[in-house]
Amino acid sequence: MYIFAFLKSIYVASNKFILAGEKETVSSAIQKAKRFRSTELLRRGVLLVPVIWGEGREPQIEKKGFGASTTIATTMPSGK
Fold first, then answer.
1. Ordered alpha helix ranges (H), 1-80
2. Any residues with CB less than 8 A from the CB of 18 and at least 6 apart, and which?
3. Which of 11, 20, 30, 67 is the most exposed place for a label (fewest CB within 10 A)?
4. Does some domain include residue 48?
5. pTM summary value
6. Which residues, including other chains, have CB under 8 Å from residue 19's CB and lie 6 or more apart?
C-alpha cells in the first residue's frame, strides 16, 4: 500500500521526461544528463523515464480453439 502512495507522490510532484529510443541512444542521453542531475534536474523536479525500443523477445502467443492452423500440409491428397 505504501508503494502506491510513494508512486503517486512522485507522479504528482515531478515533471516526467521520457527518453525513448534504442539502448545506445537512451544510455547516451542519460549519461549526458548526469552532470545536470544533482543541480538543475532535481531542483526542477524532473523525472527521467528511460524507454528502450527493440529489446527483448517477441511475446509468445498461444493459439487456442478454432482458427487457422500454423502447420501446412506437405503433400496433397491423392484422389484414390
1. 2-13, 23-36, 42-44
2. 49, 51
3. 67
4. yes
5. 0.50
6. 26, 29, 30, 48, 49, 50, 51
**pLDDT tens digits, residue range 32-58?**
888 887 778 878 888 888 888 876 666
Answer whether residue 2 is part of any domain: no
Mind listing the pLDDT tens digit for each residue in 4-22?
776 677 667 778 888 889 9
Q: How far apart are CA 54 and CA 21, in angstroms?
A: 8
The count of domains in the chain is: 1
Task: For residue 41, give its domain range.
Answer: 12-52
Domain assignment present for residue 38? The answer is yes
Residues 11, 42 contacting (CB under 8 angstroms): no
Does residue 31 sit within a domain? yes
**Cell numbers placing 31:** 549519461
